[in-house]
Amino acid sequence: MTVLVQLDNLTLGYQRHPAVHHIAGAFGAGSLTAIVGPNGAGKSTLLKGIMGLLKPLQGGVTLCGLPRQAIAYLPQQAEIDRSFPISVLDTVLLGHWRQVGAFRAMSPAMRDEAHAALAAVGLSGFENRPIGTLSSGQFQRVLFARTLLQDARLILLDEPFTAIDARTTADLLKVVHRWHGELRTVVAVLHDIEQVRAHFPDTLLLAREVVAWDSTAEALSPANLRRARAMAEAWDDDAMVCARGAA
Ligand SMILES: Nc1ncnc2c1ncn2[C@@H]1O[C@H](COP(=O)(O)OP(=O)(O)OP(=O)(O)O)[C@@H](O)[C@H]1O
């Protein structure tokens, strides 16, 4: 396996209060991995750490030959403000932002790519709609279209299918498989275990620390799922220091 992202004894948290501890392992180039775990397990925190939005309290993240601009990150929909008056097409065109910068105009080829991306997610004809008027499923399609334009080598998706209808989920899973086929590396936080078993070859089972990081069949064994549940029941949200101390 060629390593794309290496996590070394990674501890992340907020106001020095650890949320995930001592994560060690690697995402291989071209891998398709689900991150699964109970509520509050630190799944979103881990994505933010990989993205560089959170500074490690301990340990580190190494991007192997991967510039940060080559990472696409889709946060949970709840974290995105949709009241901004911007059209579907302009939202998708933001995917070109890193190539274009603040002042250069979009080329006709870039616009064509945006139209093609909207067609790929089933949203042709929606170009001029303000994003605030879309359903959650339609808006998630827009965000996937924008990600298609970004040409990212690592794609981080935080609960991309939560509160999204079944048809949209099926369509967007096809986009995920397209990325995997293009040898991009995809990491998605997911809650639907059956969906993970059906579509994601690898799984990181997280409960504030790694329970298992393996092929999905191994990682989601009944014993590992029981362990993750038991660990969640034992969490002490008021604990101020890492029980294992500095490694
Ligand atoms: N901005 C923040 N400030 C302080 N604590 C936070 C912040 N964001 C998350 N936490 C805490 O960090 C821990 C891990 O949260 P995180 O959102 O990463 O979990 P998760 O596994 O993604 O949960 P869920 O499945 O419920 O979305 C939780 O105890 C949470 O309350």
From TrEMBL:
Family: Belongs to the ABC transporter superfamily.
Keyword presence, Membrane: no
Protein name per its UniProtKB record: ABC transporter
Keywords of this entry: ATP-binding, Ion transport, Nucleotide-binding, Transport, Zinc, Zinc transport
Pfam families, sorted: ABC_tran
ABC transporter domain ranges (all copies): 5-233
Taxonomic source organism: Skermanella aerolata
Protein's UniProt keywords contain Zinc: yes
GO MF annotation list: ATP binding; ATP hydrolysis activity
Gene Ontology terms describing biological process: zinc ion transport
Superkingdom: Bacteria
